[in-house]
Amino acid sequence: MRNARWKRRPGRSGTPGSWLRQSVLGIAVAILLPLSSTLVGIGATATAAFNPAAFDFWVDSGMGPIKSRILRAADGNTNRVVYALDGLRAPENLNGWEIETSIPEALASQNINVVMPVGGMSSFYADWNAPSEFFGVPAGNGSSTGSGGLNGFAGGPGKSYRYQWETFLTENLRWALRDRLGFNPNRNGVFGLSMGGSAALMMAAYHPDQFSFAGSFSGYLNNSAPGMREAIRVAMLDAGGYNVDSMAPPWSPQWLRMDPFVFAPNLVRNGTRLWIAAASGLPTANDPPGFNTLNGMELESLALANTRAFQARMSALGGSNVVYSFPSTGVHAWNNWSEEALHMIPDLSANIG
User: Fold this and answer.
1) What is the pLDDT of residue 64?
2) What pLDDT is recorded for position 151?
């Protein structure tokens, strides 16, 4: 396993010294955001881009049968594997990386097998404390539309049953990939955006034999900071009507276990190779004027504040196993994450298998 000194990519600006000011500003922004925007990300309404080269891979779990999409490495190897995790609005048909980007194809062309779990809206890919419900009222039948707090009483994934995504990714799916496809179950990579970014770090922190590399793009990496739980509460209400208290009780050991700022010592001790990125929140030429761009600017500013806090934490712990990337432009949107993933691929490739 390779460790590397901290480095900043050329052209990427910023220092960890201002993270506290950014955190306070970012948290204030999150609390003031309207219900429809907090932490939900952009691109949720795009048309699915089905890749015929990928195939469905169903695995039984405590949540029932769960689909993943698999894209095989170009050279046919089974040793090099990466998991691509979705954002808060993860749909039930395809993974966002397949819907929105060509990153799976880019990874496969570099002889990496791509595993794209499908579903898990608002789950943070965690094992929840209970099925999502409010005031002791079980969710009804039917499907969540993926938008609006009224969906809290509608049916949907994680409502008639308890989300068990960490167990699925690190046990059910892991061993099914080995037994049915011959995939290497060790020294895999994992990366994700927003919700999936913090989850990727969590997987690596607690399952170091499985994951030797983890990447976070625009992740929320300081979830126990003042105001963050309530910001996440609002986000999960909007993204499918989920109750954060069903995921983990307030400030419980279970909640703290999910917080990258808290479990950072695990990542240092494990020597996990990390790629941690967040943009400035300033739009690029490809971000058109409008609500989505304004929303993305606010969300990325919060992600940047969280990421800077995590950077300071890792620095205090002597963590030298991280590449940080802080682009001078970019909002909370797929074009930003796709570009960042392309930059990450060589480092990922060198640290798995």
Assistant:
1) 97
2) 79
What confidence category does residue 146 fall into, taking pLDDT thresholds of 50, 70 and 90? low
The residue from 298, 300, 339, 340 that is catalytic is: 300
Give the confidence band of 150 by pLDDT, cuts at 50, 70, 90: low
Within 13 Å and on the Cβ side, how many CA atoms surround 116?
32
CB 197 within 8 A of CB 217: yes
Q: What does each C-alpha distance from 333 to 39, 43, 167, 240, 330 come to in angstroms?
A: 11, 7, 29, 19, 8
Q: Classify residue 81: in a domain, yes or no.
A: yes
Catalytic residue among 194, 212, 216, 301: 194
Phi, psi values for residue 306, rounded to 5°: -65, -40
Residue 150 burial by CB count (10 A; 0-12/13-18/19+): exposed, middle or buried? exposed
**DSSP H helical ranges for the chain:** 19-32, 96-100, 103-109, 165-167, 173-176, 195-206, 228-238, 244-247, 253-257, 260-270, 291-316, 334-349
Strand partners, 164: 127
- Residue pair 335/41 in contact (Cβ under 8 Å)? The answer is no
Can you give the residue range of the structural domain that contains 272?
Answer: 7-349
What is the total count of domains within the chain?
1
**Which residues, 6 or more positions from 223, have their beta carbon under 8 angstroms from its beta carbon?**
198, 229, 232, 255, 258, 259, 260, 261, 306
Based on the residue annotation, tell me whether 194 is a catalytic residue of this protein: yes
Q: Does residue 1 sit within a domain?
A: no
DSSP letters spanning 296-314? HHHHHHHHHHHHHHHHHHH
The answer to whether residue 300 is catalytic is: yes
> Which candidate, 247, 276, 246, places its Cα nearest to that of 261?
276
Question: Model confidence over 275-310: pLDDT tens digits?
Answer: 999 988 888 878 778 877 877 788 888 899 999 999
The string of pLDDT tens digits covering residues 215-250 is: 999 999 999 999 999 999 999 998 999 999 999 999
What CATH number did the domain enclosing 168 receive?
3.40.50.1820
